[in-house]
Amino acid sequence: MFRRHAPQSSILTSRRRFLKGSATIAAASALAPYGSFVAAQERPNMEAARKEGQLVLWHADQDNDKVEFYKVFTEKTGIKAVGQRVLPGVALPKLMAEMRAGGTEIDCYDSSDEGMMDELQRQNFLMRYEHAHLGAFGREFKSDPQGFWTAYFINLNPMMYSAKHVADDIAPKSWMDLLHPRWAGQLGFQTAAAGSQYVWWYNLRNVLPADYWEKLRAQKPRAYASSTQIVADLLNGNLKMGGKVSAYQHVKGMRQGQDLKVIYPTEGTPTSSQVTGILASTKRPNAAKAYIDFILSKEGQEIWNKIQGSHSARADVRVADVPDLKNIKILVAQDFKDFTARAPHRVQHPVEQGYRPLSEAASRKSLKIGKWRYPRPTRTHQVGRAGQSRQEKPPSAARHH
């Protein structure tokens, strides 16, 4: 996820800056149960990597895209890899439980939720590997301290529709337009198990009126496990409007000659970054580091983002048919600490099917949405032309129905 950093005075007192100031000692002791911190910083031994066995990865991307990328990775490195699509809302509790029990079979996770990876880092469950490509990524695309996770693509979340089923002149131009009666029961969103759905709400929560979320809920939006399913229903006419769809779906649609249209709303488009990192208990450290080296290299970024039709987080990588970010108004989190604090990571403990509050008091302060439990916001912000007070609301559109 893009993020802008706080003023220097607040940075100096933040937990993240404290960690950076004591990186060597803290990281060494934190990773002690899983292996040597010094060894984690070494470049991979490729001969050893090929003998460690098949690399096991989890991801939040489209399976076909990953299979194609893994094939190229194997051809380039000689390392076999197998992956499974596991969204953050399912992945986090499982990984937390397994790591606390002594380790997981998963070597790397390509996650759609930067906040989740930050929590794994905070729990000392990620290996710190300062790969050779860190200098090619801006600080907003890296963990702090750097080396725990790095963005492997930028994900925009606009609206989409099919020109075959919706006329251009009635298509919404803004997020507010989704409240029109014509879209009742015809809006599709991903479930809250997808990290990008939380990002969508977070980046719009102060942009839209306070009552927007309840009005959107009254439209009875439909929940989908993936944006691919949303696109399928848009094209076959079962759904009129994709309320939040990954922008690369439009690029893919254009490549296939589909009548898919994209809308970058006037208020702005919520934007996040997908990040990758190595689990600290990896049994294939050389292969895992080789994977990180490849996917974040210039070559790897060109291959991956061309396959998916997405924006690279590297400034030196550009995919020809992917829109230039300079021409799109994007909405990004201004305060990463606040962004992660509003996610459920710090107030619940993981159970197999999602999150459960630690107490009844914690339950009263949170709201369960799908597999996630969001804290009920209590702060009031002054926004809007009239400067009226607006109470933050959770992303009702992301609920299961």
The CATH homologous superfamily of the largest domain is called: Periplasmic binding protein-like II
| Strands, count | 18
**What is the number of independent domains?**
2
Broad CATH class of the largest domain: Alpha Beta
The largest β sheet comes out as: 7 strands, mixed
| Low-pLDDT regions | 3-32, 34-38, 345-401
Q: Name the overall outline.
A: globular
Using the 3D structure, state the CATH architecture of the largest domain: 3-Layer(aba) Sandwich
Report the mean per-residue pLDDT as an integer: 79
Number of helices: 16
Q: Strand portion, in percent?
A: 15-25%
Rg is 21 Å
Percent in helix: 25-40%
How far apart are the first and last residues' alpha carbons, in Å?
Answer: 28 Å
The CATH topology annotation of the largest domain reads as D-Maltodextrin-Binding Protein, domain 2
Structural class: alpha/beta
What's this, in brief?
The chain is an alpha/beta fold and 401 residues long.
How would you describe the overall organization of this protein?
The chain has helices at residues 8-11, 15-21, 23-30, 37-41, 46-51, 63-77, 88-100, 114-122, 195-204, 212-218, 227-236, 248-255, 285-296, 298-308, 336-341, 360-364, and strands spanning 55-59, 81-85, 108-111, 126-127, 150-156, 159-162, 187-190, 222-224, 241-242, 260-263, 269-279, 330-331, 348-351, 354-357, 366-369, 372-375, 380-382, 389-391. The chain is α/β, with parallel strands linked by helices. It has 2 domains: 8-154 and 272-327, D-Maltodextrin-Binding Protein, domain 2; 156-270, D-Maltodextrin-Binding Protein, domain 2. Strands 1, 2, 3, 4, 5, 11 and 12 form a 7-stranded mixed beta sheet that branches. Strands 8-7-9 form a 3-stranded parallel beta sheet, with helices on one face. A hairpin with a 2-residue loop joins strand 13 (348-351) and strand 14 (354-357). It is 34% helix and 19% strand.
